[in-house]
Amino acid sequence: MLKRIFFVIFTAAVLACHAAPKTQPIVEGVTNVKPDEQQQLVIKEVVNLIESYNYKKIQINDSISSIILDKYIKSLDQGKNYFLASDIKEFEKYRYTLDDDFKNGDLSGPFFIYNVYAKRLNEYFTYSLAQIKTKFDFNQTDSYLYDREKQPWATSSTALNDTWKKRVKYELINLNLAGTAEAKNVETLTKRYQNLQSQTSKTNNQDVFQILMDAFTESIDPHTNYFNPSNAAAFNEDMSRSFEGIGARLQLENEVVKISEIIAGGPAFKGKQLSAGDRIIAVAQGDGEFVDVVGWRLDNTVSKIKGPKGTKVRLKVIPAGKEMSSKPVIIELVRDKIVLEETSAKKKVKTINSNGKDYKIGIITLPAFYADFKAANAGDKNYKSTTRDVRKLIDSLKTYDKVNAIVMDLRGNGGGSLVEAISLTGLFIDRGPVVQVKDLRGKIEVDEDENSGVTWDGPFGVIVDRLSASASEIFAGAIQDYGRGIIMGSQTYGKGTVQSSIDLNKLVNPSMLQKIAGLISKDKTVGTSPSGTSPADINLGQINLTMAKFYRVAGSSTQHKGVTPDVVFPSLYPMDKIGEDTESSALPWDVIPSSNFKAVANLTPVKAQLVKNSEQRIANSLDFKYLKQDIADLRKRDSEVSITLNEAKLKAERDAQEAKTLARQNELRALRGLPAIKKGDKITKQDAFDFIEDESLKVMGDFMQQSGNYVMNLGVASPKL
Fold first, then answer.
1. Is 470 one of the annotated active-site residues of the chain?
2. Given a cut of 80, is residue 595 above it in pLDDT?
3. How many whole angstroms separate alpha carbon 106 and alpha carbon 111?
4. Is the dihedral of CA 641, 647, 653, 659 positive or negative?
5. Beta bridge pairs of residue 348
6. 500 is catalytic
């Protein structure tokens, strides 16, 4: 039904809006990037979707136009290092017109602004390249103002030239301090700026449109997002934890694509012909002709290498360690589906001692709530999903590891699938409500776990931090409200809104796609679409539209406030810089009536003692002491906007900081019975110590010691905690 409504609105809007876009002003001295027909359609329809279906019920008006302009300019030049005061004055003519322009599909203003930015950027890169060979005096007492955000816009290029000259000097000092020769440093920095200039010249209208749409949607709310076709594909791959290709991660280095990592299990891994460090210089589809990709944008090369499962791709490769003039090796691979296991749920087991008794605790680390909906809808019985993966891990922890308790580590988990958050909760509670969802009409729906029984009925804990958001907060909030386990860590992000992913292509009349294809084929100036464009080539992208708000089963929203743990630790992240409550366009916190849920246990009597014990340990912990010092140092550094350009002084400051860090590390290593390290020594992964996890396990030990008299009703044999 919703799709049919969307289709009617899209078609009506397309037919109704035919005001011709204004002529885009030309910026001299730079290749002008222009919008294409499909972007003009997308902006109109996104306006319609937001005005009709966004939870805020907001109208795109002059006030929103002003906010968009400020956000767009800030996204291009937050540090005020490129635009001049005269540029900003000229942009003012768009302050109260973007709303009407967007409704008419007119993108001439924002694209003009970008072209001015590109011109300034090129000017300062050119100026910087000329300054690199300057004989700087590194003994002066001058400084580099690297953060100009609170400064007025520069009135002339001359004023900004001084900033860029000092930036070059600062970068040379950094290279000097790394111990390389002066001539080599000049060469390195020259290549760096030439590469930046080259990559900037490859910016296309999709890039500019994405920057603009980010500014637009963030002006509405923090989580309504538009994704251009390539970003939409990346988003959906991340959600499914899989993609189809050769199984290699790529990076761009000096205009050449280099393999940075071979993904285990993929065709490249199984074929054993590619290695990290190899450089790809040409790509051929099947038995077709090779296409040289040197100097290409990374995303364009990636799109050539990726492809459907079962298809063949050939690569011309310069092996790692060989000169670029060496004869390339031709490697043939058959693409396959690659499952990203390293970003999926994982388990480990640790043993702790609490008051003389040993406990084995299983730790499940969950980086996101993912699901391969495409594979599931296609009937793949082995499709990738959070709940399926975690269920297998729990079975292993119970059967083979014989753990006494399980901890779910949701630190850094920004959310994902709402469906997976509900089904995962069902592994720890019997049937019942998990989350309440209120839509834009004010209708409240209670989403339940409908499966009888539980997968884990023993002691349970959840670790969260400031980066735990959305689905993580649904899960942690439900566990807390049901009294099913102990929540530990720091206050979560506070993202309590629900987004629906809408494929814009599916909402547009096919005849409209045909029309756009014809228009793009005729227009050779837009630069991103080939001649002979067909409707199948048109990809309008995807919008994740905020259409609802979720609430805990007890009625409280996680929006803005997040989930407050039962046992609170100091936060690793600055609470005043990260979180929903720092977003100006965020929805407010509120409460709705509680759902009809029944708690499985009342853990209130044990929580007070858990908090007391943890606070005592933290007060005596060297790790937490240093964490608090780091937080204070971060606040101090955050207020700094400049840095010395005196090389000796900068070296002394860095040496002092390195010595302080080394002394800390050795003090902590001594506590753990590890040998001291010297300056320059690498710390192995085995030596790393997670003190947040360690304290969480100690809390779980206390929990198991103190909760023996509290019985849960999980719809099973009511075991003791």
1. yes
2. yes
3. 10
4. positive
5. 363
6. no
